[in-house]
Design goal:
The protein has about 140 residues and is mainly beta. It has a single domain, classed as Gamma-B Crystallin, domain 1 (Sandwich). About 10% of the residues lie in helices and about 45% in strands. It contains 1 helix and 7 strands. Strands 1, 2, 3, 4, 5, 6 and 7 form a 7-stranded antiparallel β-sheet that branches. A hairpin with a 2-residue loop joins strand 5 and strand 6. The N and C termini lie far apart (about 55 Å).
């Protein structure tokens, strides 16, 4: 009797948490709202570890002149397939020097949610976000 209850509880938890996928490409994201970032979005945060969300994007964004500053982490919760990687241009000051970088942020997946995460222990200013293919040269493609 106890084994049946445990098995039923585990089955219910598995379905409730979405561990069993539908097999469609849209279901290949990291989770429904991991790090308070909806499926299909690129989110930026003011704290390390994807805490205190500042903004989220579903599409491309360009704010080159001033950007959005005081950013400490990002998360790519895009849907796998197609343009699921993000190229973000950002600037930062570290040990007295100014830097300008464009990096590729990989999409998070159910078995590797950390692929979509990045944190810095200093402030960065994000100037633009461009959704692209995994084959882009900056994405190891």
């Amino acid at each position: 009797m106890v084994r049946r209850k445990v098995a039923a509880t585990l089955a219910a938890l598995t379905l409730a948490t979405g561990v069993v996928g539908s097999g469609s490409p849209a279901a290949a994201d990291a989770g429904s709202n991991l790090h308070n970032c909806p499926i299909g979005y690129f989110c930026i945060y003011s704290s390390v570890g994807q805490v205190n969300r500042v903004m989220l994007w579903e599409g491309n964004w360009n704010y080159n002149s001033t950007g959005i500053g005081n950013i400490r982490s990002v998360f790519n919760n895009g849907t796998e397939g197609g343009r699921d990687h993000v190229l973000a241009n950002y600037t930062y000051r570290y040990e007295g020097k100014n830097y300008n970088r464009t990096d590729c942020f990989h999409v998070a997946t159910p078995d590797r949610p950390w692929d979509g995460e990045r944190s810095w222990y200093f402030n960065v200013t994000i100037h633009s976000v461009l959704w692209t293919y995994a084959s882009h040269s900056l994405c190891d493609g």
